[in-house]
Design goal:
four-stranded antiparallel β-sheet; four-stranded mixed β-sheet; 501 residues
């Protein structure tokens, strides 16, 4: 009886061949993909570290994307801020050396330039980066600044613009007599009194001090309410060259002095008063000279200072208006009142909350690092520049006014001075420095994250990737083993009892 061949399908050798084929398939997959496996379970014990590293890489990618967007916003902001700074420089140069020749509209060429520059400033402050307004603080979807025409001219439906506010303040500061709310009188035949018209009052010229070298004169004040300065010549006439000086505070915070010199010349030169035959006559001449000089001051420097202060009040939050509560009129008003949305244009409509403007936009750029890059159009440096440009753009002067040239000169000098930033005040450059610091923080964070990326990627590669050279070597060894197994299997498949014996 013949002995049948042995079946090898379920033998240990057959199982070994199947295992070798499975290992070869895995190695061929690794050689093709460069990965240990196609599933997390096949990656080995270190895959937990790789998963954590991949999560950290994902966070870094999100931070990188955020920083790219913020750097774009800051780039747009820096361009806008530099344009604002350039406007300030150009305007200051124009104010210093500008012509005082008025056109038919009552403005100089420099003022016409200021009108165009003001419109440009409004456009710059309404700049968007993507879908956000960069000068609107935390209200990034709200346009921060009203149109230049609305700011200057109002809306014709009850909301006053800057030009109306300046006009009202001018009338309140000049008063009915055009002397800056100053009353000049002669209490006695040998004396002259200079007094404010009301107290307390925020309008008009304010008496600061008086000094005198008038021979035999008695000078007192300012005292009382309203304040009064008195000059009494007594029984003695002054002599040539004696002086009396009155210093006044103006609404914009500046001060100016009216100095009069006693003179026996006929006619008396400018800036002097005639010495009369008696102290009574001299006092009358001093009264007339003071009236003329204070009137000149009121209709030149006071008008300019009033426009500057009115502009400052308009751009304040809330804006300030002349209080016309009855029975007050523009010529007799003594107080200011808050302007409302109903009666005054609100030039800035963005976020105006407490705290730093920079803190209105905060973003995380690393696990423990944030940067601040918010801005408001109402920041001191920007608002101050807006005021200087706006006052030049808004003021008009009658070409037939004999004081027109002096008014423009006084206005130009104040604008030029205001554009020279006082120590300790915020500048456009300060805002740029803040943004540059934010960029530096992001640059440092990027450098750290690149190092972290390299480390995390190395952890992932070690856990998930394979060496193709090593896999190829293992594959070659498996092929050799499998070939030997197949040869053994072939020999065993032909084995019979006869051959065995």
């Amino acid at each position: 009886m013949a002995v049948n061949g042995i079946g090898f399908g379920n033998t240990i050798l057959g199982g070994s061949i199947r295992n070798l084929k499975a290992q070869m398939a895995d190695l061929q997959g690794q050689l093709t993909s460069g990965k240990r496996a196609t599933t997390y379970s096949g990656m080995g014990a270190n895959e937990g570290f790789a998963i954590a590293a991949r999560a950290q890489l994902s966070n870094i990618a999100a931070y990188t994307d955020t920083m790219m967007k913020i750097n774009t916003n800051i780039g747009v902001a820096n361009t806008a801020l530099q344009a604002l700074s350039d406007i300030g420089t150009q305007l200051q140069n124009a104010a210093i050396s500008g012509s005082q020749t008025l056109n038919s509209m009552g403005q100089t060429a420099g003022q016409q330039t200021a009108v165009a520059e003001f419109s440009s400033m409004v456009g710059i402050l309404n700049t968007q980066a993507g879908d956000r307004y960069i000068f609107s603080g935390s209200t990034i979807y709200t346009q921060p600044v009203a149109s230049s025409d609305l700011i200057l001219n109002g809306n014709g439906a009850g909301q006053a613009g800057l030009r109306q506010v300046i006009s009202e303040r001018k009338q309140a500061d000049l008063g009915a007599g055009g002397l800056g709310r100053i009353d000049i009188s002669s209490p006695t035949v040998t004396s002259v009194a200079v007094a404010e018209d009301a107290s307390p009052s925020v309008y008009g010229l304010k008496l600061q001090s008086v000094s005198s070298s008038l021979l035999g004169a008695t000078v007192t004040g300012p005292t009382g309410a309203p304040p009064v300065i008195s000059v009494d010549l007594g029984v003695t006439n002054p002599v040539d060259g004696d002086t009396v000086s009155f210093t006044f505070d103006l609404p914009d915070g500046t001060s100016e002095t009216v100095q009069l010199t006693a003179s026996s010349e006929v006619p008396a030169p400018a800036g002097s008063f005639a010495i009369g035959a008696t102290p009574t006559a001299t006092a009358a001449n001093l009264n007339a000279a003071l009236t003329s000089s204070i009137g000149k001051l009121a209709n030149t420097s006071l008008v300019a200072a009033s426009a500057v202060r009115a502009t400052r009040d308009f751009f304040d939050q809330p804006p300030q208006r002349v209080d016309l509560t009855p029975p007050a009129t523009l010529a007799t008003a003594t107080a200011a009142v808050n302007g409302t949305v109903a009666d005054t244009v609100q030039w800035y409509t963005g976020d105006d909350g407490a705290g730093s403007a920079r803190a209105t936009s905060v973003v995380r750029v690393d696990s423990s690092v944030t940067v601040q890059y918010g801005m408001r159009a109402s920041e001191d440096a920007i608002r101050s520049l807006m005021e200087s440009v706006a006052v030049l753009a808004a003021v008009t002067t009658s070409p037939t006014d004999p004081n027109a040239a002096d008014q423009i000169s006084a206005l130009n000098s104040r604008v030029a001075q205001n554009l020279t930033v006082a120590p300790g005040s915020q500048t456009i450059g300060d805002i740029q420095v803040d943004l540059a610091n934010a960029q530096t923080v992001m640059k440092d964070a990027t450098a750290r994250q690149k190092l972290t990326q390299a480390t995390m990627q190395n952890i992932i590669d070690q856990a998930e990737n394979v060496s193709t050279d090593e896999v190829a070597s293992q594959l070659l060894a498996l092929q050799t083993d499998l070939q030997a197994s197949y040869q053994t299997t072939a020999m065993l498949s032909q084995l019979s009892l006869v051959k065995f014996l």
